[in-house]
């Protein structure tokens, strides 16, 4: 195949725990390239009756997941994509200065030097984050993430 592993073997006669041979596998290049012929050879062997993907992959020194990916690509199926995660939301209370109804968090002392324009965010862990209405949204998100950790 186009890429190859360099192997270094070492052995010792002084092993007391039953280990007498140590094999160190190193790889000189960061990523191996495979020709279409290399891929076809591996896929043909993997498609043989009774062939096991793990054994075929080990014989060629590649990962079984790579063989599975080549097989999907050869069949014209797209590579697997991670499912998109649903966005997470936290409850948000906006203080307009009026009377509160259905307050989730009990009211506490007002923020010093704060006018009536403020935002209260109730986090999932029950903590309350109060910020001024003009606070940057990215700052609020960072604070919320830090308080939830």
TrEMBL record:
InterPro entries: Transposase_8, Trp_repressor/repl_initiator. Pfam families: HTH_Tnp_1. NCBIfam families: IS66_ISRel24_TnpA (NF047595). This is Transposase.
